[in-house]
Every structure is written in structure tokens, then in C-alpha cells.
Design goal:
Elements (H helix, E strand, L loop, with lengths): L5 E7 L3 H11 L7 E8 L3 H10 L7 E3 L4 H14 L5 E5 L3 E2 L4 H11 L3 E10 L9 E4 L10 E3 L7 E2 L7 E5 H7 L11 H11 L3 E12 L11 H17 L2 H25 L5 H13 L12
Parallel strand pairs: 1-2, 1-4, 2-3, 6-11
Antiparallel strand pairs: 4-10, 5-11, 6-10, 7-8, 9-11
Helix pairs in contact: 1-2, 6-7, 7-8, 7-9, 8-9
């Protein structure tokens, strides 16, 4: 009997070293029926050429001239994957390291639990730390817009949860057919949270398994652009509440996001003398509340 087909989709945005490190870890993958779709998501020509020169044999990247964000880049890859008729797709950050058994383990669990639509591994830090407790199940608070993870081992073979960390999650292909791809309004951050809300509302299950792991270096791409992480986290938190919360949850949650979360970020910027962050936070509040597109000022040449 043929193994289910699994396609991994990975984005590169001016991060050829991280991408190459991740690809090196994937060389040890033990699951046979695996394909990779590598998207260069608007990198500079110099970075893209560096990536091309050092790619393993047989990997040909698909290039997008202008950065489409995590959601847009992944959706570009999903449209390519659709032609291959996969059983499962793994959306994978390039700033990760993948253990040899991860794909095989998650595929086996998904096959044994047909009502499970989204599955993630437990997440550990990169660089690796000794005796670290992993991040596992995620929860969503629509009163505050917070999305905390539990620092613990999940229940075996998987533990149900509200959402799975976006650095690595396996999705049953029929789930994309039922509820659609990622919402590109978010650009990056909260798009996987929004997707998981839709999955759960449709009556499908999400879970995290302790039987395999992923190693992840947090926010490598966005940290390269000053203020982008702060802007997206505040803008998208408000946007997420606008799209998913009830009327009273929106009032409380957006107020909390602006006056508590936003104020804390502003105070931190002042303490570290990062005064350029202050107008960016204000811009994030405005763009989230009025559902404006991501500010193009971050991406001017």
C-alpha cells in the first residue's frame, strides 16, 4: 500500500543561511513519500543567488518578486501543491530544525485519527537548550487577543487544543478544501491562529503530539526589519479580534490590546531608547482597527 503523500512548503526571505540549515536537517527525513516546495518570497537578488548556489541537488525554488508575507507566500505554495494532490501539507518555517522522524510520526497519527485536521509537534528552542520544557498546546483568549502556549509535554499520542504554532503544522488537505487557505490580510503573525479558529468552528480537531519535536529560532525574518515585529503583532492582534470576537469581546479586547499591551511595548521602547518604535506602534493600532493593509513603508528599497 502506497504511503500518503506529504508536501512541505517553506519560505525564504533574505534568510538563505536559515533555509540551508533547515534543508540540511530534512536530508535525514525517514518518511519516503515527501516533496518540498521552496518559495523565495521577495528576497534581494544577492540573497536569492546565494541560496541558489548552495541548494541541494534537485531543489528548484519558486521565486516571488515582491514579498507577499507569510500568508501570501504559503498560499502561493499551496496553489502549487494543489496540482500534486497531496494527502497532507506541512507549513514549515525556514528558521527550524526538523528531526528525522517528525514527518513519519505526524503522518501516522493523522492516519490513525481521521477527525484530526491540524497537528503540530512540541516546540523547542534554537539554539538548543539542555533540560528545556517544550511549548505545546496553544489557547486563544478572545477577550484579550492573547494566544499563550502551555510549557509542558502534551498528552500522547496527541492533545487537543485551540491552535497549533505556525512554525510547523501539518494540515489534512481536505481541510484546506473545506475552509480555504490562509487569510492574507494578516501578512504575517496571527494568520495561523485565524486559520485554527476556522478549523475549530467547522467542528474539526487540532492537536499537538509529544511523540516528535521541532526546533525553532523565533521571529528571525521580521527582526531583520526594525519595528516590523512590533507593528505586525499589535496590528494583527486587533485585526484578529475584529474578525473573530463577539461585539463585547471586541470592545474589551481591542481596548486591552491598545492600552495595556501597546502601552507596555511603548514603555519598553522608551526604556531601550528605541524611539522610532513609538510611531510604528501607533500606526499598528490604526491599521488594525481600520483593517488597513500592511504599511508599505517597511519594504521600500
Amino acid at each position: 500500500m502506497k504511503s500518503p503523500k506529504v508536501i512541505l512548503i517553506m519560505l525564504n526571505w533574505n534568510g538563505h543561511e536559515e533555509t540551508l540549515n533547515c534543508l540540511k536537517s530534512l536530508e535525514q527525513n525517514t518518511y519516503p513519500n515527501t516533496d518540498l516546495i521552496l518559495i523565495d518570497n521577495g528576497s534581494t537578488i544577492e540573497n536569492f543567488q546565494k541560496l541558489q548556489k548552495r541548494l541541494p541537488k534537485g531543489i528548484i525554488p519558486h521565486r516571488i518578486e515582491k514579498n507577499q508575507g507569510f500568508a501570501g507566500g504559503m498560499n502561493f505554495g499551496l496553489h502549487i501543491a494543489e496540482k500534486e494532490k497531496p494527502d497532507y501539507v506541512i507549513l514549515l518555517n525556514n528558521d527550524t530544525e526538523v528531526p528525522p522522524n517528525m514527518i513519519a510520526t505526524m503522518t501516522e497519527i493523522m492516519e490513525e485519527h481521521p477527525k484530526l485536521s491540524v497537528l503540530g509537534p512540541e516546540m523547542y528552542s534554537l539554539p538548543k537548550k539542555e533540560n528545556e520544557t517544550p511549548l505545546s498546546t496553544g489557547s486563544i483568549n478572545l477577550w484579550t487577543g492573547t494566544t499563550p502556549f502551555e510549557k509542558k509535554h502534551a498528552v500522547s499520542p496527541f492533545e487537543s487544543c485551540d491552535f497549533v504554532h505556525g512554525c510547523c503544522f501539518m494540515v489534512r488537505w481536505t481541510t484546506f478544501k473545506d475552509i480555504g487557505f490562509l487569510d492574507e490580510d494578516y501578512y504575517a503573525y496571527y494568520e495561523e491562529t485565524d486559520f485554527c479558529v476556522k478549523v475549530k468552528k467547522s467542528g474539526k480537531k487540532l492537536g499537538v503530539t509529544p511523540l516528535t519535536q521541532i526546533y525553532h529560532e523565533e521571529s528571525v525574518s521580521t527582526k531583520r526589519v526594525s519595528g516590523l515585529l512590533e507593528y505586525l503583532m499589535l496590528r494583527n492582534r486587533i485585526l484578529f479580534l475584529e474578525k473573530n470576537a463577539s461585539f463585547f469581546q471586541k470592545i474589551f479586547g481591542i481596548s486591552y490590546s491598545v492600552f495595556i499591551y501597546g502601552s507596555k511595548r511603548a514603555l519598553r521602547a522608551i526604556l531601550y531608547r528605541q524611539f522610532n518604535i513609538l510611531p510604528i506602534l501607533l500606526k499598528g493600532c490604526i491599521d488594525g482597527f481600520f483593517k488597513k493593509p500592511v504599511w508599505s513603508g517597511f519594504f521600500k528599497e
